[in-house]
Write a structure and sequence with these properties.
One of its GO terms (molecular function) is phosphorelay sensor kinase activity. It is an enzyme of class 2 (transferase). Keywords: ATP-binding, Kinase, Nucleotide-binding, Phosphoprotein, Transferase, Two-component regulatory system. InterPro entries: HATPase_C_sf, HATPase_dom, His_kinase_dom, HisK_dim/P_dom, HisK_dim/P_sf, Sig_transdc_His_kin-like_C. Helix 4 packs antiparallel against helix 5. The protein folds into three domains: about 5-35, no CATH class; about 50-115; about 120-285, Heat Shock Protein 90. It contains six helices and twelve strands. Strand 1 (about 5) and strand 2 (about 15-20) form a beta hairpin. The N and C termini lie far apart (about 45 Å). It has helices at about 40-80, 85-115, 125-140, 160-180, 245-255, 280-285, and strands spanning about 5, 15-20, 30-35, 120-125, 145-150, 160, 185-195, 200, 205-210, 210-215, 260-265, 270-275. Strands 5-7-10-12-11 form a five-stranded mixed beta sheet, with helices on one face. A three-stranded antiparallel beta sheet has the order 1-2-3. A two-stranded antiparallel ribbon has the order 4-6. The relative contact order is 0.12. It is α+β, with helices and mostly antiparallel strands.
Length: about 290
Amino acid sequence: MNDIDVGASSRAPLQCGVQISPVSGHEGMMLLMLSPRELAGRMTQNHSAKSAAQSAIGMAEMLAHEIKNPLAGITGAAQLLSMNLSAEDLELTDLIVSESRRIVKLLEQVEQFGNLSEPDFKPVNLHDVLDRARRSALLGFGANMTITEEYDPSLPSAWGDADQLLQVILNLLKNASEAAGKKGGKIRIRTFYEHSFRLRRSDGTGKLLPLQIEIIDDGPGLPDTIREDIFDPFVSGRENGTGLGLALVSKIIADHDGWISVSSEPGHTVFRLSLSRVPRDVQSQES
């Protein structure tokens, strides 16, 4: 049977293929196997989307360099003009300066996205990374949030770049905090091990990604209009958002050969990261 919706109360349902067969030698027992169908299709779509995103970022990066120089001239000219203007006219030059600086900041983010270095792969204690991100969030952008942890104490080390993974978690925590607004809200950080989670690529190859991290918030949820494109550059649900935070998260996770997904409804949004363990040859070298 194909395209059967399977889900739990805490997660959005997945379309699965269902196979049922009797167990040899055990009368009355049946073997039930569920295979999520959407993952392979989403991988193919994701590859095409990432190619398009990389092209868009590459063009934006070239334009960024060309735009920043004249913007500096515009800002400087506006500041010179403001020296001899009335208070009423000063509002206009102040607007020119502030908007020019906002555009420069956006262009710098575009350049940072395009110049992201390759991961420096090493064994990473994910709980250490999560604790660093949580403490940083509570001291800054997430000061009005309640952040709780549900860690699997037996979770093995991941294979990745600790600094880049920290950047991923900070972006997700910031996204959840900004969605909650000034009233604040709750964020739950959850880790667990899923033995059978395998990412199967469009070419038929696959990779085990058993290490799971979930960032769960009780905010308003993602707008339906952007949910499918939320990891694309320049897609944002906030009026003043740049649309680069989640695109950067997606790129870093892709560079780690990992997987990121999201399920969202009002009051319950879950970003899930799936990462690989330390390779066996590295484990044997360390021991």
